UniProtKB/TrEMBL annotation:
Entry similarity comment: Belongs to the carbon-nitrogen hydrolase superfamily. NIT1/NIT2 family.
Native source species: Coprococcus intestinihominis
UniProt protein name: Carbon-nitrogen hydrolase family protein
Domain CN hydrolase, chain residue ranges per copy: 1-245
One annotated GO molecular function: hydrolase activity
Domain of life of the organism encoding this protein: Bacteria
Origin organism lineage: Bacteria, Bacillati, Bacillota, Clostridia, Lachnospirales
Annotated keywords: Hydrolase
Iron listed as a keyword: no
Length: 274
């Protein structure tokens, strides 16, 4: 399976970002992508004002455009995250569409990026976004694929749940920053890949020093052995990862940690069922 991570630049005008997304989706399909992934908040700058202004319900203009782009290009699409308005709240939502443009998955970012690093990054995501509470795995003809978003990568428990639901690859719209990016991004992506012996594919927004958020870019594909397959720099670009589900089976049979869990002593269990 070929999965394209499209590292786009995020402009102020969300319509412009949608048109750009349509272009990169078509380009990825010309390069034979089976699935295209877009960055976290690819339609608006990653700040409270822009997120509130671009928020729209499921089925709204951005949803429609992405569903049509998936159908037109006959490709699976994980439409980054889009601010979804529902019940008086805003969620950071990753809709997944199949090759006919039907929604086959909906994931609302579950862990809020509320941090305050001395001399570095401050962010209070929960002041604008409400956390979701459902785990998401989408079915494709290649196998089941988990979806998570950015800060979620810091929570191994979620990845264990995704593995328990059968995922051998997890795709992650993301947008790390210039404080935590150089320090943690690669390490976290490799750690999650290795501890579940699965592919972890992070699609980040391109860095933009003039923007309101110090994005780090560096979209990355990591294989089930924990090796980096490819990593982009800070600028816009596309990373095409060849994902072979049999490789996850191979690593899992050679080092069978998932069968060696001491569930008599500890267990990660899901309390809500999506
Ligand atoms: N943007 C995020 O959600 C997370 C992030 O930048 C970090 O964990 O660091």
């Amino acid at each position: 399976m070929k999965i394209a991570l499209c590292q786009t630049t995020v402009h102020k005008d969300w319509h412009k970002n949608l048109r750009n997304a349509e272009r990169v989706i078509a380009d990825a399909v010309k390069s034979k992508a089976d699935m295209v992934v877009l960055p976290e908040m690819f339609i608006c700058p990653y700040n409270k004002k822009a997120i509130s202004a671009a928020a729209q319900p499921e089925g709204g203009e951005a949803w429609q455009a992405m569903s049509e782009a998936a159908a037109k290009n006959h490709v699976y699409l994980v439409a980054g995250s889009i601010p979804e308005s529902a019940d008086g709240h805003i969620y950071s939502t990753a809709y997944t569409f199949d090759r006919e443009g039907r929604q086959i998955g909906k994931y609302r970012k579950m862990h809020m990026f509320d941090i305050d690093v001395e001399g570095g990054q401050y962010y209070s995501e929960s002041s604008v976004i409400t956390a979701g509470d459902e785990v998401c795995v989408v079915e494709t003809e290649f196998g089941p694929i988990g979806v998570a978003i950015c800060y979620d990568v810091r929570f191994p428990e979620l990845f264990r749940l995704l593995a328990k639901r059968g995922a051998k690859a997890v795709v992650m719209p993301a947008s790390f920053n210039r404080t935590t990016g150089p320090a943690h991004w690669e390490l976290l992506m490799r750690a999650r890949a290795l501890d579940q012996e699965m592919y972890v594919l992070g699609c980040a927004a391109a860095g933009d020093l003039a923007g309101s958020y110090n994005g780090w870019g560096h979209s990355i594909a990591v294989d089930p052995w924990g090796s980096i397959m490819e990593e982009l720099g800070e600028g816009p670009g596309m990373l095409m990862a060849a994902v072979d589900f049999a490789k996850a089976d191979e690593v899992r049979s050679q080092i069978p940690v998932l069968q060696q869990l001491r569930t008599d002593i500890y267990e990660v269990c899901e309390k809500t069922v999506g």
